[in-house]
Amino acid sequence: MPEGHLIHRYAREQDAALAGRVPALSSPQGRFDPGPYAGRALRTVEAYGKHLLYHFDDSPTLHVHLGMRGLFLRHADPAVPPRGGVRLRLATDAVAYDLIAPIRCEPLPDDGVRALRASLGPDPLRADADAAEAVRRLAASSGAVGAAVLDQSVWAGIGNAWRAELLFLAGLDPDARRPGPEVARRLWDLAVRYLALGRDAGQVVSDPDLPDERWVYKRETCRRCGAPVRRWDLGARTAYACPVDQPAAN
DNA sequence: CGACTATGGGCAG
DNA sequence: TGCCCCTAGTCGT
Description:
This protein is α+β, with helices and mostly antiparallel strands. The protein folds into two domains: 4-119, MutM-like, N-terminal (N-terminal domain of MutM-like DNA repair proteins); 131-241, Helicase, Ruva Protein, domain 3 (Orthogonal Bundle). The protein is built from six helices and ten strands, in the order αββββββββαααααββ. The strands form three sheets. It has a four-stranded antiparallel β-sheet, covered by helices on one side. A four-stranded antiparallel β-sheet has the order 2-3-4-8, with helices on both faces. α5 crosses α6. The radius of gyration is 19 Å and the shape is elongated.
């Protein structure tokens, strides 16, 4: 499920497989017009937060956002016919990627790309992420820290599962407000470290020793102390937190 | 096999 | 606020 770590994983894999080539684009579903990309070389596949940007020579950037349900299927045999409903197939003679149920799949002119970048906060998985700016933005947020980290204009790429697990690792109550620079920096460093683990593993990893386990996300009890996990609505998503390990600041 | 849920997010209304 | 996106894993019947 597509939070930032999986978007970066897709970008890395597809960049390795497709960049520098002339992939064939098609839309079996018919809801995407591949015409502008016919015969165009793909320069790079870039991830920014939860967004994917496919940069082509002499064509608008292709913007993909998976939303909650979108996914890619990879076919080692590009001759395999796509299932119904494939919005976009990117294929070479060696591999095909089928995009299903994205919330966005569209050409994006340069000014749209600039606007998109400007709308996003630092992405902990990008090499060009500015940690000081990330700290500033989080510390400047006025609401609950648990809402701020889901705000893509504060930090880009964090979703609900990462929110739950990162705030647990930081010992931070999601309802806490106005985190200071030290707290914000600690949380950022956790995000940088753990999202990279998640990208490499292909799943949320919040305990490297037990990568399939979670501390509080979707759990009934805290995996560390056994206390009942508190769950409530925060930032239009269900928040999960341990009342013991993430005590309320007041 | 149907119901339910969910790791996003934009837009209509 | 509700709805959509040709989803998928899980659970109950």
